[in-house]
């Protein structure tokens, strides 16, 4: 087993190999288009939260 790198918030940093393994398993199980749609949905959530934080500061 490879050495795990601890993060500042108490968790462990995921290796590129582990991330790729998880992504490939998800694509194999659910399909590429479903995973792309999930990615777009998650990015949309981040954009909404970003706008809540940034836009009020731009108008002050």
Can you put this structure into words, describing what you see?
The protein is mainly α. The chain has one domain. 70% of the residues lie in helices and 7% in strands. The protein contains two helices and two strands. It has a two-stranded antiparallel ribbon. A hairpin with a 5-residue loop joins β1 and β2. α1 packs across α2. The longest helix has 27 residues. It is flat. The protein starts with a strand and ends with a helix. The mean pLDDT is 87.
Please give the largest β-sheet.
2 strands, antiparallel
Give the oligomeric state. Answer: single chain
Low-confidence stretches: none
Through-space gap between termini: 52 Å
Whole-number tally of structural domains: 1
What is the CA-atom radius of gyration, in angstroms? 17 Å
Summarize the helix and strand pattern as letters: EEHH
Number of strands: 2
Please identify the structural class as seen in this structure: mainly alpha
What's the average pLDDT? 87
Shape: flat
Helical fraction: over 70%
For the biggest β-sheet, the strand order reads 1-2
The percent range for strand residues is 5-15%
Instruction: Determine the number of helices (DSSP H or I, runs of at least 4 residues).
Output: 2
